[in-house]
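Page 37, continued from 36.
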């Protein structure tokens, strides 16, 4: 069910979110021509409505939120307390959390007068064994997935990361390999750089003491990362954002589903506190938009030189590219896979589940000062026959196509 912008504005007021500008006409078209941001929402929604369980998006311009939209359902009847999607529904934004982590790490480095070219090894837990090549990794190499960690089979928990570091680098040439471990390790670096107190391992500790201390450390580093982001990244980005955490907190949280819809239960993906930094923040699209605007249109989090570096060198972002219409953009994706949905590609795995539900999240900024924050609580499934496999046009492609259509419509 569509939720119109005027209704959502009232809801935002009730829930205390940032004020949305009533002036939707902005000078961001070709040669500074005017466009209406509600028209951008229409161009995107006509591509996405009906092709997922639900989604929410926020359009911001020059750091000010202009238009918002929500479609579909946040909870389905099989989970009880069914309700329509609103922009105040929180979801685990998956790898879009990495942009928050990148900003937090850069803030700690800047505060300590360190640079991204400094080495990371002295900020890892002191008793960890450092394998071959670990002492050569820089902060920038983690930020840009050029650390040399190429094995993606490791988890993001304390023990898995300790093992990864002890086994060292497979390829000393440090190729670019997207690896969640790069960002999971940042929770240790941020906590150490920011001088958080962490239990130390006593000398000559036996195996029992080692296990006890490491369990404490795992929680302490995870909590320190959350606390730092709440106070210095999220908390400075908007009212009420200093309480955001890496787990669902609502009594009946918004859930993620398969699409096309089935009778399966939804998924919230649970508590990711102990595997945070590379994923896990539970947020709304309004909060995502507020963070992104604060990051790039103020210096409350980091200096402009560093936020520009993030988007230009893909430190905390996945893409730096141009739309079909020639407008440059930077973007970060997050997602949790649902079913293996492509018969040709997935073969015998077709129809099998990764999770009960699927999520797709995006932070996208265009060089004409337009930003889009987006969350879909299912796979986006655009095909003429809903029993066939998707045609590959995920939400991102629809957003870019909608943007191009909108941009070209500007009055000359």
């Amino acid at each position: 069910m569509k939720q119109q912008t005027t209704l959502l504005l009232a809801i935002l007021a009730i829930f205390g979110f940032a004020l949305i500008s009533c002036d939707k006409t902005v000078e961001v078209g070709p040669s500074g021509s005017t466009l209406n941001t509600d028209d951008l929402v229409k161009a995107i929604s006509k591509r996405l409505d009906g092709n997922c369980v639900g989604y929410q998006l926020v359009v911001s311009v020059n750091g000010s939120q202009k238009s918002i939209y929500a479609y579909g359902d946040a909870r389905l009847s099989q989970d009880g307390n069914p309700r329509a999607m609103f922009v105040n529904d929180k979801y685990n934004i998956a790898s879009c959390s990495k942009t928050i982590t990148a900003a937090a790490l850069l803030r700690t480095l800047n505060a300590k007068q360190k640079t991204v070219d400094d080495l990371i090894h002295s900020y890892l837990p002191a008793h960890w064994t450092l394998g071959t090549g670990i002492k050569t990794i820089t902060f920038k190499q983690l930020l840009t997935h050029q650390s040399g960690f190429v094995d993606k089979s490791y988890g993001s928990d304390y023990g898995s990361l300790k093992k990864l570091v002890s086994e060292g680098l497979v390829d000393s040439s440090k190729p670019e390999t997207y690896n969640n471990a790069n960002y999971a390790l940042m929770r240790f670096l941020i906590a150490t750089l920011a001088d958080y107190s962490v239990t130390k391992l006593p000398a000559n500790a036996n195996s029992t003491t080692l296990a006890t201390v490491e369990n404490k450390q795992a929680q302490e580093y995870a909590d320190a990362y959350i606390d730092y982001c709440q106070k210095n990244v999220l908390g400075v980005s908007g009212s009420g954002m200093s309480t955001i955490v890496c787990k669902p907190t609502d009594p009946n949280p918004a859930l993620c589903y398969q699409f096309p819809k089935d009778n399966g239960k939804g998924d919230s993906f649970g508590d990711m506190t102990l595997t945070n930094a590379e994923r896990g923040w539970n947020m709304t699209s309004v909060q995502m938009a507020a963070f992104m605007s604060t990051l790039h249109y103020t210096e409350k989090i980091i200096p402009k030189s560093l936020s520009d570096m993030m988007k230009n060198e893909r430190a905390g972002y996945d893409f730096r590219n141009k739309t079909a219409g020639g407008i440059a953009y930077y973007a970060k994706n997050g997602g949790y896979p649902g079913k293996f949905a492509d018969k040709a590609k997935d073969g015998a795995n077709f129809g099998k589940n990764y999770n009960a539900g699927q999520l797709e999240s995006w932070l996208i900024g265009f060089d004409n000062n337009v930003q889009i924050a987006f969350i879909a609580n299912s796979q986006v499934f655009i095909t003429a026959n809903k029993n066939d496999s998707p045609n590959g046009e995920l939400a991102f492609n629809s957003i870019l196509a909608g943007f191009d259509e909108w941009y070209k419509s500007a009055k000359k």
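The chain is about 35% helix and 15% strand. Flag for discussion at group meeting. The longest helix spans residues 207-234.
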